[in-house]
Every structure is written in structure tokens, then in C-alpha cells.
């Protein structure tokens, strides 16, 4: 199934909307020209590109994303990065925690710095484009999912009039401590949808108990079926299929299941 346009009147959760958001997350990896062409095809007439640099505990990194707007919907999507790169700069224990939005809890320093580098551009684009009370949506894969989740939280907690209608993330790492996760769950009930594909290793980073996921999760099992909840025993059994000694090895299920293409394949299958 190929998505030609978004249903800009949509509200709430659906697998079709998840598939559309996954398409938008994948598009964040493409060139500005490809983003603009897809935006027009999907029915969005305004586009703003975002690109900045930040410095985690390792060499300079760049943060990229885009915001598109139509008559009834605004979407901001963030680009992800490689699992090994995330592990490298999440593993540095010498950096202090980064204060959460509006001083609610904390986030990992790397995520905080990455978002800070790009957030002013994102907020300016949303407030400029939102001229007809359009719905607001965030999406991203991998690191992009972490930034999508945190950007939605920052937008709302710093300006309660701007509560995102939907946050869809794919292969997102843990982003925050228990305090911020609880604040998120209260504010974003039924608005955040975090997808985890079977053995994807990135959602296991950074480790618990310091860092927490927000509560909403949709698990894609080994057969590609989307399940809204997974029991601890059943989930562990399913995730064990295909696991290798090194989950970050390029050929491991931990990395293969993290690919954006795997998420799109599974979601498309669930639309049948």
C-alpha cells in the first residue's frame, strides 16, 4: 500500500495513521528536495527544513528534521541515527543529566543537547504555520523518536496551549527519568504511540532504572503482528527469537529489527 495523501482531518489513533507517520519518519532521512516533493504529494503546501549541530561526549553531530503544514494538520519529523552511534554517546557516564522541559524531571544529556540545538527552529515553524488551529503531530525513528517525544513534551509543558494531537515513534530509546515519564503519561494519555519491532535493540537503551519509557507501547511480534500490550513472559519469549550474543552486530536481529524499513513493512502488513 502506498500512501498518496494524509487524511488531514484524522484524530486519534489508527494503524493507518501509524503507517502514515512511519512514512513521514522515513522521509526525514531524505534530501530537502525529496521532502518537498513528498509533502506536496501528501497534500502539504508549506515546508520548513531544520538542521543544526550539537556536541555529545564525542565528535560533533548534526540534528535534522522538517515541519510540513496543510490546511488542517502540521507534522514535525526528526531524523534518526545508527544504533552504535547512540550507544557510544549514551554510554558516557560523566555528563550531568539535562533538566526536563519546564524543569519536570531529567533527560539524558545527549538527548537534551540534541533537542536544544533544533527546538527553537521547530517551535518557530509550528507557531508560524498554525494559522487555522491545525492539529499538531510529531514523529521520528531511533534518535528521531526520542527527539519527537521530547519536543512534544517541551512544546506543551512550556506552552500548555500547544498539546500535540499525536506523537508516533519507531524504535525510540528511553528518553527520561520516572518523574518526567509520569508527567508525560498524565498529559499525553492516548496521544503518544511508541512502536517497538520485535528484537529492536535501541528501545533497550539507555538502561533502566535511571531512564524510563513513557507507558504507551505497541509491540510488533516476530510474525509482524502489532500488539498493543505484551505480557512480560510472552514478550521476552518473542524477543528471544533470533537474538545473538552481540545485539549491536550489523547482522543481528537487534539491528535488523531497528531498520525503518522493517517498521514500515510490518505496519503495511497490518493494514490488510
From TrEMBL:
GO terms for biological process: lipid metabolic process. Residues 227-250 are annotated as: Disordered. InterPro entries: AB_hydrolase_fold, Fungal_lipase-type, Sec_MonoDiacylglyc_Lipase. CDD domains: Lipase_3 (cd00519). Pfam families: Lipase_3 (PF01764). Residues 77-208 form the Fungal lipase-type domain. PANTHER family: ALPHA/BETA-HYDROLASES SUPERFAMILY PROTEIN, FUNGAL LIPASE-LIKE DOMAIN-CONTAINING PROTEIN. This is Lipase family protein.
